[in-house]
Amino acid sequence: ILNVEQSPQSLHVQEGDSTNFTCSFPSSNFYALHWYRWETAKSPEALFVMTLNGDEKKKGRISATLNTKEGYSYLYIKGSQPEDSATYLCALLGIGSSNTGKLIFGQGTTLQVKP
Amino acid sequence: DGGITQSPKYLFRKEGQNVTLSCEQNLNHDAMYWYRQDPGQGLRLIYYSQIVNDFQKGDIAEGYSVSREKKESFPLTVTSAQKNPTAFYLCASTPPGGYSNQPQHFGDGTRLSIL
Question: Do A93 and B99 touch, CB atoms closer than 8 A?
Fold first, then answer.
């Protein structure tokens, strides 16, 4: 069974702090990596889909990097704001699931930004 | 606006009762998915369907059933055989064009509780 691990499980930062968290996955079975933001009482929203080793994607103050050889991805938030408070999910699309779209999700990192 | 609609938002089940969770999408997506979330765990795949009249078991299909009679609709039935149904259920869909670079779109979820 594929395992996707996210760390830390939760994070509390002050407004204006920059922060980052990690998603680890088995590098031997990588096809694509997804990042989602899930705010309370809303549906998960896609942030990035990453496929290439060394890929770096950016959306406003949020960016992500990907290392498929060592099996990890980092999500960075620069200058955190209270509206960034959410659970951030990463999900692996394995080689065996590339024709079905089946994702394996990590347990998420919950970020709380204090004003 | 296109999107995924899940209903009801909250659902209560009596012992021995089957209940059906609705998922409707007007995004013209072919693939649809049902996930379950429990506290401290990642989203786990229950069932998925890539095309009308076809569906496949996910990782935790026991005690659940689905149908896909229309492209827009993918209802999930939680049967009395599911001994621990209390959880949050999310429905998702994927656009056509290949799973490697397309994120999933999610509904707002249904919270199911046992009476």
Answer: yes
- Interchain proximity A107–B40, CB inside 8 Å: yes
Does residue A30 contact residue A95 with C-beta atoms inside 8 Å? Answer: yes
Query: Measured between CA atoms, how close is B106 to chain A, in angstroms?
Result: 6
**Mind listing the pLDDT tens digit for each residue in B82-114?**
889 999 999 999 987 666 678 999 999 999 998
Q: Mind telling me how many Å the CA of B5 is from chain A's nearest CA?
A: 10
Length of chain B: 115
pLDDT reading at A98 higher than 80: no
* SS3 state at B27: coil
Strand-pair category, A56-59 with A109-114? unpaired
- Tokens for A79? 């200058």
